[in-house]
Structures are given as structure tokens and as C-alpha cells.
Amino acid sequence: MKRKSLKTAAYLLIFCLLAALFPLSSLGESARHSALKKGDSGEEVASLQRELRALRLLDFKGEPSGVFTDEVERAVIALQHLLSVKADGIYGTNTRRAHIGAVEGGSLTPFYVEELPLYGCVIGIDAGHQQKADLSLEPIAPGSGMMRFSMSDGCVGVRTSIRESVINLEVSLILAELLEKLGADVVASREYEEVNLSNVQRAKLMNERHVDFWLRIHCDHSTDPSVYGARILVPNSIVNFNIASRSALLGSCIIRNYCETVGTELLLSRAMTGETGFNWSGVPVAALELGYLSNAASDIALSSPAFRRKCAEGIGCGIAEYYLASGRIDSNRYLEAFSTLRNQEPGEKADGLFALEFEKNLRGFGIFRLPLLASIK
Ligand SMILES: [Zn+2]
Q1: Pairing state of beta strands 285-292 and 230-235?
Q2: Distance between Cα 220 and ligand 1 center (Å)
Q3: How much distance in Å is there from the Cα of 212 to the middle of ligand 1?
Q4: Best exposed site among 138, 254, 289, 352 by fewest CB in 10 Å?
Q5: What pLDDT is attached to residue 9?
Q6: How far apart are CA 88 and CA 103, in angstroms?
Q7: Which domains are present in the chain?
């Protein structure tokens, strides 16, 4: 007996020494993690937040805070109810074990937004115009004495009489939904017709929200009813020098994919001067003219929900290509985004240097500065 208790004491001493020398994490699976509870913070809490988001028990955008808040506690309690373990809001050994078991056993299926192709991308979408024009004036550029209307009226369908603002909004809403499904964070200038937002306000919103870029969605008008097609407008390379090159790349990716998807012939791409929204923008920006409402066939097409969805899909493909071309996403993520948007296998897409080819074509117009495309894989 005495020998045995001496031996036990010796083991205990060795254990204490080891415990002092090494952190708990080296002492085996069951003791690797400490119990997490309200008030805790750190990488373990961040990882728990990701797991809870993957089970749709917690909602947050971007990276987790790493802080165990009331909200995290409520999510842990919800998880404990699902797992039929004691619902005390503490993520301890029992909850962790049951959680891992449920995922491995297939009764809980996590879905990690981090793996979505456009996760981490912040995209601004500006549906052009609004229900009522605002003919008050605002400076055309920061510090400029030149004034322009805060928000013009937009055009109206020659056959359907549908207002441009309605079509722009519909396409923008579908596009936002598609991009969010791909994991992007969308900043929309408006989600309703009944707003009053000037061009300057729209640009400032996008600057403040630090979007990667923003896309303005419009429809076109011509006095010639036979004119049809899509146009892309991008900032002038002299007036808006700091954003011109990336905006040109954005514009070329979008117009090419848009035309390829909806089958609309590209008429013209041009740089603009004196565009209030561009002048106030601190981030890349382009404006897409979806089609001519002065052309009866285009007007009728743009009134169809199916066609509007196609428009949004084409723009989405252009956005994915822009992220690929600017090195923000790899080709795997790009191909996943493309095939999700087009609902088809990427096939030939895998090898194409699309933006580059398109830039070559555009040089014929003598309009865009050729952006740096070295990063295209
Ligand atoms: Zn417009």
C-alpha cells in the first residue's frame, strides 16, 4: 500500500511538472480545448463563431470578432438544443464532443461561406435613377463650381412605357441575390423606387462602405429607334486617373460577359468626362447601359423577367472575371462562380484569357487605357 501511494505521488509530481512545462494543448484530445463561455475571446472563439455560422445558428459578415458575446451564447444554446445536451450556453467538452459527433455522423451538415467563390468581395450595385427625378443641383466634382442635376429622370420604354428606373432596380436586385449566393457582400444604393439619392450621395456611400468597385446599372435612349445594343461607360483616364485603369478593366470584363450572355451586340465603349458619380468615386466604377429603351425589340426584351435574369447572370460573370483578372480570386473560384451563374460546365473557359482578348479588340476604339493584365492566370 505504502509503495503504491508513493508511486502515485511520484506520478502526480511528474504530471504537475509536465503540466507546468507544457501548455494544456499538448495533453491530449479531451483537454486540448478549454470550455468557451460568455466574455471569452481569442482564436478559439473565432473558430467557434465560424462553426456556428456554418450551421446557420449565427450570422455575421466577413471575419468573426473572436468575442463570445450574448449572441454567441444564444447560438451555443441553440446548438445544445439540437444536440440534446445541457443547454447552459457554455461550449465545453460535452457540447464539443456531441458537435463533432453530429457533424461526423452526418446529422448536422455545416456549410462554410468562406469556401464560396466570392467570399470576402465587397461589391457596390447602383440601380440608376429613382421614382422621381431630383432637379436640384450638385457639384459635378469635389471642389468644382460646375453644377449638374442631382438625379435625372432616366428614359422610358417606347413600347412598354416601363421606366428605366424600374428595369435598373429589377436587374440590380437579381444581381445582388446572385452575388450574395456566391459569398459576396453587396452594398446596394437602393432597394426601392421611392428613394431620393443624388449621384454624389451614391458615390459617397460606395466610398464610405469601401466597396472593391461599384457598378451603375442604366438603360439607354437614342433618337434613332433602330439603334440597339449595350454600352459600358468608364471614368476618363485623365480626370479620374487614380481609378481609370481598374475601372477600364472592370468595364471590359462586364460588357464582354454581358453581351456574350444576353446576345446583345456591343455598340460602343467609351470613357466619360463630367460624370458626377465617377468624379466623386474613390474606387473603380463603371456604368452599364443594358439596352436601348428607344428600340421596341430591346424594350420588350428588357420587360421580361427571364431576360432580366440573363442580364444579371452576364454581369455576374463579368464581375467574377474582373476578380480573376485583378488577382483577387484564383481560377478555381472563378470557374465555380461562372458555372454557378451560367448553370453550365465551364468547358473552354478554363484556358481563356478573355479580358486580354477583349482589351485587344477595344484598342480599336482607341478609348481605354490598356490595364495591367499580367496577373491573369
Ligand atoms: Zn440612366
Answers
A1: antiparallel
A2: 6
A3: 23
A4: 352
A5: 62
A6: 21
A7: 33-115 (1.10.101.10), 122-363 (3.40.630.40)
